Amino acid sequence: MSDRAVDPEALAEFREVAQGRLDHLDSLIDRLRHGNDLGVEPGFGLLDSGVTAREAYREFHRLTWSNLQDLRADLAGIIATVDGVAERAVATDDESAAHLSRSKD
Fold it and tell me: Quick check: 76 and 22 in contact, CB under 8 A?
Protein backbone atom coordinates (compact mmCIF):
# COMPACT_ATOMS: atom_id res chain seq x y z
CA MET A 1 0.00 0.00 0.00
CA SER A 2 1.10 3.50 -0.68
CA ASP A 3 1.71 5.80 2.24
CA ARG A 4 0.93 8.93 0.22
CA ALA A 5 -2.09 10.95 1.21
CA VAL A 6 -4.01 13.74 -0.46
CA ASP A 7 -4.96 16.71 1.68
CA PRO A 8 -8.29 17.95 0.28
CA GLU A 9 -8.05 21.23 2.19
CA ALA A 10 -4.60 21.97 0.75
CA LEU A 11 -5.87 21.13 -2.75
CA ALA A 12 -8.83 23.44 -2.29
CA GLU A 13 -6.58 26.24 -1.05
CA PHE A 14 -4.15 25.77 -3.94
CA ARG A 15 -7.04 25.73 -6.42
CA GLU A 16 -8.42 28.92 -4.91
CA VAL A 17 -5.06 30.68 -5.30
CA ALA A 18 -4.70 29.47 -8.90
CA GLN A 19 -8.27 30.54 -9.71
CA GLY A 20 -7.62 33.98 -8.20
CA ARG A 21 -4.54 34.40 -10.39
CA LEU A 22 -6.48 33.23 -13.44
CA ASP A 23 -9.26 35.72 -12.71
CA HIS A 24 -6.71 38.53 -12.32
CA LEU A 25 -5.03 37.52 -15.56
CA ASP A 26 -8.39 37.51 -17.36
CA SER A 27 -8.98 41.08 -16.19
CA LEU A 28 -5.57 42.10 -17.57
CA ILE A 29 -6.22 40.34 -20.87
CA ASP A 30 -9.53 42.19 -21.23
CA ARG A 31 -7.71 45.50 -20.79
CA LEU A 32 -5.25 44.54 -23.55
CA ARG A 33 -7.92 43.77 -26.14
CA HIS A 34 -8.15 46.14 -29.09
CA GLY A 35 -10.01 49.30 -28.16
CA ASN A 36 -9.78 48.82 -24.38
CA ASP A 37 -7.56 50.66 -21.85
CA LEU A 38 -4.28 49.08 -22.90
CA GLY A 39 -5.31 47.91 -26.37
CA VAL A 40 -4.59 51.18 -28.17
CA GLU A 41 -1.21 51.69 -29.77
CA PRO A 42 0.42 54.97 -28.74
CA GLY A 43 1.39 57.52 -31.37
CA PHE A 44 5.07 57.34 -32.27
CA GLY A 45 5.28 60.05 -34.90
CA LEU A 46 6.62 59.90 -38.43
CA LEU A 47 10.37 60.15 -37.83
CA ASP A 48 12.62 57.15 -38.42
CA SER A 49 12.92 56.68 -34.67
CA GLY A 50 9.12 56.62 -34.46
CA VAL A 51 8.96 53.80 -36.99
CA THR A 52 11.58 51.85 -35.04
CA ALA A 53 9.74 52.48 -31.78
CA ARG A 54 6.43 51.39 -33.33
CA GLU A 55 7.97 48.12 -34.56
CA ALA A 56 9.54 47.46 -31.14
CA TYR A 57 6.21 48.22 -29.43
CA ARG A 58 4.30 45.87 -31.74
CA GLU A 59 6.79 43.07 -31.13
CA PHE A 60 6.65 43.67 -27.37
CA HIS A 61 2.85 43.68 -27.46
CA ARG A 62 2.77 40.47 -29.54
CA LEU A 63 5.16 38.69 -27.15
CA THR A 64 3.31 39.94 -24.08
CA TRP A 65 -0.02 38.83 -25.54
CA SER A 66 1.40 35.40 -26.39
CA ASN A 67 2.95 34.99 -22.93
CA LEU A 68 -0.29 36.01 -21.20
CA GLN A 69 -2.27 33.51 -23.27
CA ASP A 70 0.27 30.77 -22.46
CA LEU A 71 0.11 31.64 -18.77
CA ARG A 72 -3.68 31.58 -18.90
CA ALA A 73 -3.62 28.12 -20.49
CA ASP A 74 -1.13 26.91 -17.86
CA LEU A 75 -3.29 28.16 -14.97
CA ALA A 76 -6.40 26.58 -16.49
CA GLY A 77 -4.46 23.31 -16.83
CA ILE A 78 -3.30 23.48 -13.23
CA ILE A 79 -6.88 24.00 -12.05
CA ALA A 80 -8.12 21.09 -14.16
CA THR A 81 -5.36 18.84 -12.80
CA VAL A 82 -6.11 19.80 -9.19
CA ASP A 83 -9.81 19.13 -9.80
CA GLY A 84 -8.96 15.70 -11.23
CA VAL A 85 -6.71 14.82 -8.29
CA ALA A 86 -9.41 15.88 -5.83
CA GLU A 87 -12.04 13.78 -7.62
CA ARG A 88 -9.76 10.71 -7.71
CA ALA A 89 -8.89 11.17 -4.03
CA VAL A 90 -12.57 11.17 -3.07
CA ALA A 91 -13.25 8.11 -5.25
CA THR A 92 -10.24 6.28 -3.80
CA ASP A 93 -11.29 7.15 -0.24
CA ASP A 94 -14.80 5.87 -0.94
CA GLU A 95 -13.43 2.64 -2.43
CA SER A 96 -11.09 2.17 0.53
CA ALA A 97 -13.90 2.76 3.00
CA ALA A 98 -16.11 0.26 1.20
CA HIS A 99 -13.30 -2.30 1.09
CA LEU A 100 -12.57 -1.85 4.80
CA SER A 101 -16.22 -2.19 5.76
CA ARG A 102 -16.50 -5.45 3.73
CA SER A 103 -13.35 -6.87 5.28
CA LYS A 104 -14.67 -6.21 8.81
CA ASP A 105 -17.91 -8.08 8.09
Answer: yes
